[in-house]
Amino acid sequence: MSYSIIRAAASLIHREFSMAFRAPQELINPILFFVIVASLFPLAISPDANILRMIAPGVIWVAALLATLISLNRLFKSDYDDGSLEQLVISPNPLSILAVAKIVSHWLLTGLPLIIITPLIGIMYGLSWTGIYVMMLSLLIGTPILSFLGGIGSALTVGLRSSGVLLTLVVLPFYIPVLIFGAGAVAAAVSGLPYDGQLAILGAFLALTITLCPFAIAGSLRICVNY
């Protein structure tokens, strides 16, 4: 990879961070959503510690998945509206590399904060330190997968005015295996069972998405801007 490509990707990541901090509400909304959803389940189900530990893996993973979903609509939308997406498409740099830069920015601004907050939510649900560790590890592997898969859906629907529902319908079926193995790894750890297998499958999913999704995103963006 040449220096010019690396510099272009770094510049794009810097631009994404600058735009995100100019509109901090867009940055805070997924985090608040994650905390609120995870906090409401104990009120709705039961404050019993055993029940909370049992439902914690699924609740935290579902909350992280939904928080990622609500942040996807803005992934390429602002670039499409101001014309900068067309400039990215006709850039001499590979569009797939620029797509990776966009996805990395999305994960750093959305997925990473969720992972940082997770120990507080885990303590609220009474998870053991092993359970919290596996929860953070599963989210560390799984949330980039959500960002890459969501990037495809966002690229496919970027030209639509009301793309939120369609984006959810396109992306959600691909999220289900990640949810199953991510929550399953934490549930196994909480029960004292081996969890390496679920994490290994998540790792294989991550390798597959990193390899294939950038090209799918690039192709989808070219279709949307007619290049």
Explained architecture:
By secondary structure, the protein is mainly alpha-helical. The protein is elongated and about 55 Å long. The chain contains 9 helices and no strands. It has one domain.
Record keyword descriptors for this entry:
227 residues, mainly alpha
Short description:
The mean pLDDT is 87. The chain is 84% helix and 0% strand. By secondary structure, the chain is an all-alpha fold.
Element layout with pairings:
Layout: H1 3-22, H2 24-44, H3 49-72, H4 77-82, H5 84-89, H6 95-124, H7 129-156, H8 164-190, H9 196-224
Helix pairs in contact: 1-6, 2-3, 2-6, 3-6, 3-7, 3-8, 6-7, 6-9, 7-8, 7-9, 8-9
Low-confidence parts lasting 5 or more residues at pLDDT below 50?
none
Overall mean pLDDT = 87
Cα-based radius of gyration, to the nearest Å = 18 Å
Oligomer: single chain
Structural class: mainly alpha
User: What share of the residues lie within helices?
Assistant: over 70%
Q: Topology as H/E string?
A: HHHHHHHHH
Count of the domains: 1
Inertia-based shape: elongated
| Sheet having the most strands | none
**How large is the count of helical segments?**
9
Strand content: under 5%
Extended strand count:
0
* End-to-end CA span: 24 Å
